[in-house]
Write a structure and sequence with these properties.
single chain, mainly alpha, 363 residues
Length: 363
């Protein structure tokens, strides 16, 4: 049974799906754990995957005795509340097309009869972003999109590898759990969908859509509707009693289709809704340049005086960025806007200043 499978694989499900949920919603918890009133489905797809891997096997007895072509959907996607589908766009056309009604209308057609699917949220992972025009409709149903690059920062790579080695020795430490039931999730959803959207927020919503179109990025009608639903949810998560302009910043993750448009969409959305976050992203790029200067000084055969001059220059610029980050944070908090990137900027700036003091001045 589906619940037996769920309980058997509980540790793996916690690590793969529920961490992703917490990150996606930007919740201040270590883990979201859906209680046992939910049904979970997970699979990984490739080009040879049969639709039965997602929708269940064909009911041979029904075909033989009744002449009906239907699937046995118990424990499969049509009966799941939460789903994780790995390597989504490696699947073949029939499998992807078959998922479209579930992902959008929450319907599954079995023997030509539509039935409601209880699916609450579906998460996908893929190493292959959709580039096939035939699957554009499927891609349009993947509402919130994050492109995750390889870890690039040398210090972060070292920490990642060291942590991996530590877990091999010490084992995986199970994090503190935060529990949310489907009933609580439904209640939160209803509260979010009933928030008021003032005219200023509607105007900004439509202005962003028009500006994107002017820059060659067209947003489908489906994504407009899903975009406002995400904005309402974002406002609820931010503790707003109504949708503020800053709550529209979630659209940066929804209104691009081609990878080449990600930066354009991000700049337009954040420029209109959360200038502080946009400025923080620019400051992070500037900080990376100073970090590269430090690394170059450490790797070159420079005398101590020249190394300290480089360190002093980097420290001075880092201190300036830290002060600017504090100002950005104050303005963002006053506007009830997201400060995630600003906090990242502050943390990375402080880390760089600490490194300069330790490595270049022995403090």
């Amino acid at each position: 049974r589906a619940m037996d499978w769920f309980l058997q694989h509980l540790p793996a499900l916690q690590e793969t799906v529920f961490f992703a949920v917490a990150d996606l919603l930007q919740l201040d918890v270590d883990l979201i754990f859906f209680s046992r009133d939910s049904t979970y489905f997970e699979t990984a797809l490739d080009e040879t995957s049969d639709p039965g891997q997602v929708f269940g096997p064909v009911d041979i007895r029904a075909m033989k005795d009744e002449g009906k072509y239907r699937r046995r959907v118990s424990g499969m996607l049509p009966e799941a509340d939460i789903a994780f589908i790995d390597e989504f766009f490696n699947a073949n056309g029939p499998t992807l097309h078959g998922m479209m009604p579930i992902l959008n209308e929450r319907l599954y057609h079995n023997n030509g009869i539509p039935a409601k699917a209880p699916l609450w949220s579906a998460f996908m992972g893929t190493n292959k972003l959709n580039a096939d025009a035939d699957q554009a409709a499927t891609w349009d149903r993947v509402h919130i999109r994050f492109v995750v690059q390889y870890v690039a920062d040398r210090d972060n790579i070292r920490d990642m590898v060291a942590d991996s080695i530590r877990r091999r020795v010490e084992g995986y430490a199970e994090p503190e759990k935060s529990v949310i039931t489907l009933d609580e999730l439904r209640k939160a959803h209803n509260e979010a969908m009933n928030l008021d959207v003032p005219d200023r927020s509607w105007d900004m919503f439509l202005d962003i859509k028009d500006e994107l179109l002017h820059n060659g990025v067209e947003v489908s009608s489906r994504r407009l509707a899903e975009g406002m639903a995400a904005v309402l949810a974002n406002a609820w998560i931010n503790g707003s009693s109504e949708v503020n302009v800053g709550d529209l910043d979630v659209l940066q993750h929804m209104w691009w289709s081609l990878q080449g448009d990600i930066e354009t969409v991000r700049d337009i959305v954040l420029g209109a809704t959360n200038p502080g976050e946009k400025a923080a992203l620019e400051k992070l790029e500037e900080l990376d340049k100073y970090k590269a200067d430090l690394r170059s000084a450490e790797e070159q055969d420079l005398d101590e005086t020249k190394k300290r001059l480089v360190g002093m220059e980097v420290f001075k610029n880092s201190k300036r960025i830290a002060e600017e980050a504090n100002e950005l944070e104050q303005k963002a908090l006053a506007a009830n806007a997201n400060t995630m990137r600003i906090k990242e900027l502050k943390d990375r700036t402080q880390a760089l200043m600490d490194h300069v003091q330790t490595a270049f001045f022995g403090l």
